Amino acid sequence: MTDAPTHSIGVQVRGLRKSYDEQPVLKGIDLKIERGEVFVIMGPSGSGKSVLLRHVIGLEDPDEGEILLDGESLRITNVAERFRLAMVFQSGALLSSLTVGENVGLYLAEHRLKKPDEIDRVVTEKLEFLGLRGVKHKMPSELSGGMKKRVAIARALVIDPQLILYDEPTSELDPLSTITIGEEILALKERIHVTSLVVTHDRDLAFGVADRIAIMSEGEILFTGTPDEVRKSQHPFIRKFLTADFKFNASSQSA
Predict the structure, then answer these.
(1) By the 8 A CB rule, do 45 and 28 touch?
(2) Cα gap 151→187, rounded to integer Å
(3) pTM
(4) Above 90 in pLDDT, residue 225?
(5) How many whole angstroms separate alpha carbon 155 and alpha carbon 141?
(6) Could you give all domains of the chain from N- to C-terminal order, each with its CATH number?
(7) Partners of residue 13 on adjacent β-strands
């Protein structure tokens, strides 16, 4: 992969509101994500994080408010097509009937953006950048969970994205695989200067990769700041969320 900088883009969310069946899910979200930064949205399950992510990439339309990509509203026809946006889904979303290489190159092949030999070269390049040499001809079922997540990232890279969105990229991964995914997110920031928006409830990942963190709860942003500022926040919910730990009471099970 080339080390030449990618033109990253900034994202601004203004007054975003969304309801389903008259139940509000996003309640006036305001965010500003700078070019080239790793911005993390943290919060418990059901707080609206993934819904917000789908709006940023244009998969859903808001009831109110707007999203700007480098100052241009997503509501403008074809504005999203003028930017290179990629998403890494929580499940990885690999097609089980295709090889790893076919999965990674699928977008380029379906849209006929490159010739077959060029697609093969790009696929090999992206997989090797993610430390996945030699897996191109394997099937997704032959890979570990961590490898599948890295393949999903490789697939996102084939378009040389300006913005990558990650939806719970370390869900169902062991601690070592989680560290690897965090290292890949940071490597992409340094190598191609891409803007990254990461949605997660994984505290270790968030504080390990973020330039800034937004804490979200029940469809609202409670606080935005650097990792250090978030750690120092005295907001009751944030304190509880960051210090929550499961404690098993063995004595209650001894009867």
Answers:
(1) no
(2) 15
(3) 0.87
(4) yes
(5) 17
(6) 11-243 (3.40.50.300)
(7) 31, 67
